[in-house]
Amino acid sequence: MTLVEKILAAHTGKEKVSPGEFINARVDLILANDITAPIAIREFQRIGVGKVFDPKKVVMVPDHFVPNKDIASAEQAKLMREFCYEQGVIYFEVGRMGIEHVLLPEQGLVLPGDVVIGADSHTCTYGALGALATGMGSTDIAAAMATGDIWMKVPPTIKLIYHGTLGEWVGGKDLILFTIGDIGVDGALYSAMEFTGEAIDALSIDGRFTMANMAIEAGAKVGVFRVDNKTQLYIKSRAKRSYMVYEPDGDAEYSQVIEYDVSALEPQVALPHSPANTKPISQVGDIEINQAVIGSCTNGRLEDLRLAAEILKRKKVHPRVRCIILPGSQQVYLDALREGLIGIFIRAGAAVSTPTCGPCLGGHMGVLADGERCISTTNRNFVGRMGSPKSEVYLASPAVAAASAIMGRITSPDEVIKP
Amino acid sequence: MILNGKVHKYGADVNTDVIIPARYLNVSDPAELAKHCMEDIDREFVAEVQPGDIIMATTNFGCGSSREHAPLAIKASGISCIIAKSFARIFFRNAINIGLPLLECEEAVAQTEAGDLLEVDLSSGKIKNLTRGMTFTAKPYPDFMAELISAGGLIEYTKQRLISRRL
């Protein structure tokens, strides 16, 4: 069995599961946010069980439209908050929260071998820790809150092997953008992606979160990494309960094996309006930008901010560019403050915000006008994603976004930091 | 159940951001959401859609976010079913869970144009193109999915499961 099949078998009480099989999997954690929770709560109440199956296994995070951007979003956040108080489920208030997929692993709520379902498509982020985590809709979350399990179809697994050593300014974001560019936005539809190879072994946990986060952008159900020393080190200070580490069998069957040599990989940029519309930075051409966004569940972790600060240090954001930086959680914000990163950003002329998903989905804190262009470390560049349907979003790493913010056009960090 | 309606046709990778842009996600009432359904991909949709109409698309329909608001908006706009070559995974679950029928049929999508009139028999999966006099058969649902659909969606299915657990 593959890593994914092993986790699912263990959560189904079966010796073995096979791709295509329908199962009922026990869940270790259920997640919803201020956009998806209101529908989940409405549907949960229709089931009529009264109480959630286990309040310690349900977590709700207000992160999309908070701090509330208008009355309607305040009503949604209020509905969720009151449900959390009444049910006693885990809840993080504004001021103590973070973007859900940055916050939950940081708080030790997700551990290796877990099955996690979330009413947010980027729930797949937790695959970085060797957990089986996948996005679902609000009704799925409602049913699981009542029963503690959920129906799933066991996915086939695609193994992706990354050979070689990454060059300077090339990281997890570039690897995943390159991969989606190669296999397409439905290249892993209904499948699990398992990321391996020496470039992956060398990648930090933050870089792995970035890669797993965007598995959904290739249509995948999950994107998983095997647990190694880096994972153990990350977990050690955070875990408050026991967990299981699963390994794929030597004779595990994969639906596809894809191999890349990434030693010569350049920083990657996904052009409008698809995450698969990816080009190496040298082929992007002269694209002027109005805004740069650095943050999100994809790239809002400490390593991402360090990278942006390395580029922005003693530099200025281009006079015609708004650079918006959003630490992914209060802890990331505090760490960045202690390390002096926030000072670097502010002195460079960037706006630094409390954690929120805000601009990534065109909610608030950086919505685009007609004809505006944004380089963003987020995960989607669909038509209208960050605001006007006539705006454009280019996806890239924090290093490329920071360098572009300085130059006022999309560029490689090499142009700003001379070797 | 027999459905009758006119086809609204789209291409590949129709994502949930164009089905219902996030700027409207500060509410979750299906009727409110329906007012902006498909707004960023088809400005005319809301004015033209009639109860019973059918959305047709090529591959990976509904890719992107997990927002259940997307199938809710489509259903509340009067659309009776969606026929595509393939669907994105989360959208597929969401639609089945809320009782919006989805059919996978490559031939029907290839042979049908926008504005054609279709008659769809959900129990047999037969898709008749009345405009062109052609008939197609959709891919049958796996047994489990058929059970979920006949229960009336995931909430009803879950209620039944909980009752049988208590017995």
Q: What are the defining features of this structure?
A:
heterodimer; A: 419 residues; alpha/beta; Aconitase, domain 3; 2 domains; 5-stranded parallel beta sheet; 15 helices; 18 strands; 18% strand; globular; B: 167 residues; 7-stranded mixed beta sheet; 8 helices; 35% helix; 19% strand
Explain what the structure shows:
The complex is a heterodimer of chains A (419) and B (167). Chain A is of the alpha/beta class and 419 residues long. Chain A has 2 domains: 3-259, Aconitase, domain 3; 268-413, 2-Layer Sandwich (Aconitase, domain 3), CATH 3.30.499.10. Chain A is 32% helix and 18% strand. Chain A has helices at 3-10, 37-47, 71-87, 100-106, 138-147, 172-183, 198-201, 205-213, 229-236, 296-299, 302-312, 330-338, 341-348, 398-407, 413-416, and strands at 22-26, 29-33, 58-61, 90-91, 115-118, 132-135, 149-153, 157-163, 192-196, 222-224, 256-261, 268-270, 278-280, 291-295, 322-326, 351-352, 373-376, 392-395. In chain A, the strands form 5 sheets. A 5-stranded parallel β-sheet of chain A has the order 4-3-2-5-6, covered by helices on one side. In chain A, helix 2 (37-47) links the parallel strand 2 (29-33) and strand 3. The longest helix of chain A is centred in the first third of the chain and has 17 residues, at 71-87. The mean pLDDT of chain A is 98. By secondary structure, chain B is an alpha/beta fold. A 7-stranded mixed β-sheet of chain B has the order 4-3-2-1-5-6-7. In chain B, a hairpin with a 4-residue loop joins strand 6 and strand 7 (134-137). Chain B is globular. The relative contact order of chain B is 0.17. At the A-B interface, helix 2, helix 3 and helix 5 of A face helix 4, helix 5 and helix 8 of B.
